[in-house]
């Protein structure tokens, strides 16, 4: 379980996260929704240790991690899937999958990746550039599983994707959840969020304004869409 308590973050003098507290239960998918500039990416960067100006308590599987250097967090099973997917487009799918270092004993063997995502086996000799946006996202997630990530922090995996590919992302995330992987993702598409996730945190001006389940998001969809300016 990921537990965040009273997390604050700054850029210089500007405070962009204010006393953020949230929980992500193991094996669940949770979204962070909020307007542009609400602090969603900064929050994920704090969890990964990539943002230095932060204060607060973060525990993962009962171990405090907030003082751990960024490069030590993957050893604890935390994986970051950035919004640009971070894959090497000039390398083949298989090279992308074999390059990342194994950070811990939960690292997926290549065979397990290919059994879970057969498309990646079919495309293993393709360069990253020949993959669709959905396949690139699949590769980015699979690459994190190869390092041993049990908690994936995904920065808006559906951004810029056509609806059919958005559905593929939902399937990918459900597949990883079936394997016991926990996901915290930034998502602006509320309909997608309710299809894919178990809970949602609404971030507003750096604060957690609300914690919502799927039925609450569905019941208040119009109001929330208006709030998010979508
Ligand atoms: N490098 C930076 N220097 C100064 N301020 C920054 C920097 N990066 C982000 N900010 C500011 O911090 C606040 C939170 O930004 P953040 O990117 O975390 O929001 P977000 O919710 O992820 O928004 P978006 O969806 O637009 O990425 C915003 O006001 C933003 O302008």
Task: Give a verbal description of the structure.
- The protein is α/β, with parallel strands linked by helices.
- The protein has one domain (2-228): 3-Layer(aba) Sandwich (Rossmann fold), CATH 3.40.50.
- The protein starts with a strand and ends with a helix.
- The chain contains nine helices and ten strands.
- The strands form two sheets. A six-stranded mixed sheet has the order 6-7-8-3-9-10, sandwiched between helices. Strands 2-1-4-5 form a four-stranded antiparallel sheet, with helices on one face.
- Helix 5 packs parallel to helix 6 (163-178).
- Strand 1 and strand 2 form a beta hairpin.
- The protein binds adenosine-5'-triphosphate.
- Residues 11, 16, 34, 36-42 line the site of adenosine-5'-triphosphate.
What name does CATH use for the topology?
Rossmann fold
Helical segment count: 9
Helix content: 25-40%
In angstroms, what separates the terminal alpha carbons?
Answer: 31 Å
Beta-strand segment tally: 10
Tell me the count of domains. Answer: 1
Strand order of the largest sheet: 6-7-8-3-9-10
Question: What is the level-2 CATH architecture name?
Answer: 3-Layer(aba) Sandwich
Class based on secondary structure composition and strand pairing? alpha/beta
CATH class: Alpha Beta
Give the overall silhouette: globular
CATH superfamily: P-loop containing nucleotide triphosphate hydrolases
Q: Could you name the ranges where pLDDT drops below 50 across 5 or more consecutive residues?
A: none
Largest sheet: 6 strands, mixed
Q: Roughly what fraction of the amino acids lie in strands? A: 25-35%
Q: Give the averaged pLDDT, no decimals.
A: 93
Ligand set: adenosine-5'-triphosphate
Any idea what the radius of gyration is?
Answer: 17 Å
The SSE order reads EEEHEEEHHHHEHEHEEHH
